[in-house]
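Lab notebook: predicted structure, single chain.

Context: the supervisor wants predicted structures on file for every construct in the current expression panel, including those that have not yet been purified. This is the next one on the list. No modifications to the sequence; it matches the entry in the shared construct table.
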Amino acid sequence: MANLPPELWLCVFHHATHVPGTLVPEIYANASLIGPIYTKTYSAALRETLVTTRALVRVCKQWWHLAIPYLYRSVYIGRARCLSSLSSTLVRSAAGKGTLVGTRPLGEYTQRLDIAIRDHPENADAEFDSLATLITCMPHLAIVSFAITSNYAVSDLPNNIIDALQHSAASLRVLDWSSTRLEPSTSRIVDLLARCTQLRILNCPRLVWCKELQHGSIPPTVTTLRLHALIPVPIATAYKHFLPHFDPNIVRRPGSTALQELILDLNRDLHHWKDLLHVYSDQLVSIQLYVPSLYSINVEGHLQLLARACPRLRRLTITSDRFSSFIRPHLVFPSIAYLGLRVARAQSPKPDFETLFTFLEELRSTVPSLQVVQLLNEHNVRCLLKTHTKFAVRALQPFAAAAPFRVEDKEGVLLTDRLKMLGSSLASQP
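Prediction complete. Output recorded below exactly as produced.
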């Protein structure tokens, strides 16, 4: 083993530390999950690979030299107390101190940065300064995620961190604010996004919106956009305070953008999203709707708006806490080919599934373009097939021939086939 060439060790290290779906370009396939669902899916694996790479670089000098790019390729910050030491290490490395001769500064290896702080601040101002400094030492960042799970910070993102992100703006492909902590101020996020010339995926709490300006505040390269709210402003205010690089006397309506998928939280009234949908109506092929349970949401109105405003729409995903939160009688759907349903509640009672399959029966005649319905939460599927097995047998019978549409799990397996496999498994048990 000691005589293995470095090329083989690099191959071993790659397979030992690689987390599929977390780096460019693999992350693009997970664009529709951007936000808390993506964070929950991959955060544990990112932490585990950090433990592995830390062990690899401690074996010997040769392994340090070979494995150090993998250690710093993806940086996961889970504790605020680590910020100062990490920042000092990166600064010293950038100055050529404390590293082997001929190696690159450690921060240049970093492609992904997760700020997932889960403890409490000891000296918040100093920790923010350290965070800004270490970001400045990472000139090739492609992915930045803010997914703070504690009450670490209640203020807006400090200006020095936004300034630091601007150093990597040209290389950024994914910006993800998955938590309500350290949100960027409205004016500064517009300034940052204006410099993100290669951005593909954006999960942003708030964006300035001006109908006359149309998509001036959204980078034209973004293909997937998740929004919690728009900040409507008059065009004069937009030019003066948020978009100073535009001259209202010479600006022209922007050309088409790359946006194809829009993910919206329906915590606002119907008219909040109306202008935005009309602006991008000819481009959108996929929309996700997050339906909160604590509000009286006009689901019917939103679906009717999509049917009118988005003629190219082919994929629609609805997420809520339970099926009854969004299912209503006689809903009018766009001419979609795919419908994804995700319910956060892991164990649903039988009446919830009865509501679901009454709804699916109605779709058979009201949405002739529909080809696939997927239940995207595996817990929902297991609850249906294992807890309510007798009901599942009856409810899935009309869909056994996969006509007029398939009812699948998130992997594309027919629920009728899974039911058969479950029956075979039960039959084989003594």
